[in-house]
Amino acid sequence: MRAPIVVTHVVPDADALGSAMAMVRACSSSDCHPKLSLPEQSVSKRLGFLCDWIQPVLATVDDFASADGFIVVDTAKKERCAVGPELKNVDWSGDRPIVNIDHHASNTRFGQFNWVVGDASSAAELVYLVLLATARPIDALTASVLYAGILTDTLGFSLPTVAAFSLSAAADLVARGADVKELGERLCRSQRQAEFDLLRVIYANTQTAADGQIGYSSAGFDEIHGAGCTAADIDDQINVPRSLKGVRLAMLFTEGRKGKTRINFRGSGDVTVVELAKEFDGGGHRQAAGAVLECHLEDAIARVLPRAVAHLKQFPVA
Ligand SMILES: [Mn+2]
User: Fold this and answer.
1) 14-61 pLDDT, tens digit each
2) Which of 30, 37, 66, 139 fits a 20 to 30 Å CA distance from 261?
């Protein structure tokens, strides 16, 4: 019997969760019992339903010791793997194989087998292809969680990463029973009051720089927790400063844990941001990246904003 562990990134979004859970579900059979690494309290309240739908068997620290291999999805580097506090600084894979399936251009190819497609819309699109190629069953639930990944990583099929294939993959998933109605409701129109209150903060704190070409916002520790949210609820609030007309480079600074500031970067048009994230030891996609700084919010803004202004000069307005 095979017993791989499926792993995805810390603070998992719907693409991470959907890809990982689809992999677990579709690979489960009488001679394969995959488990999912999902440390406690790492899933936001909004996305918890994906776990309820799939009900994956969760991997314990002991399972990590006995697993015969690992499938990592949607994760750019090994240090970003959500393996839980006990294993965080440990060589948890040893000499066992890691299969690394990802769509982050900055992926470090940390696996023995690496399939990285930097311009794919989502990891879910890649997992869908793997399941097709290996003739794994894609039932309605598997189709639903994969669809969730494509839908959210493309912001509702609105980003330039959407290729014809993304749409045909989504169409096939809908044909296989993906629950478009329920997913649209839960992913696009189900904000809890706490998330809504956090958005007020993000709107209120939005500022611009570089003649309106940079839009950025922030939420401090007290603002996040005061709204009733936690670090796990920080996901797509970057879309607030990003949505302002004329903004070509957007940033969101959040201090979800005291003394630790996460920065999300987004570029539009020809502006790429992955290089900017790398300056601060982060990474990601060309136009969607992130980094974490070990400092308070104000210090992070003071350090990063001037670098962002300088970075943008490489992309003069045509
Ligand atoms: Mn993704």
Assistant:
1) 999 999 999 999 999 999 999 999 998 889 889 999 999 999 999 999
2) 37
Q: Are strands 35-36 and 5-7 parallel, antiparallel or unpaired?
A: parallel
Contacts with 314 (C-beta within 8 Å, 6 or more apart), sequence order: none
Distance 1 CA to ligand 1 centre (A): 30
pTM: 0.91
- Where do you find CATH 3.10.310.30 in the chain? 193-312
Say if residues 102 and 127 touch (Cβ distance below 8 Å).
no
Q: How far is ligand 1, taken at its centre, from the CA of residue 122, in Å?
A: 5
Do 269 and 245 touch, CB atoms closer than 8 A? no
CATH code linked to domain 193-312: 3.10.310.30
Span from the CA of 15 to the centroid of ligand 1 (angstroms): 5
How would you list the strands of the sheet with 98-102, edge to edge?
35-36, 5-7, 70-73, 98-102, 113-116
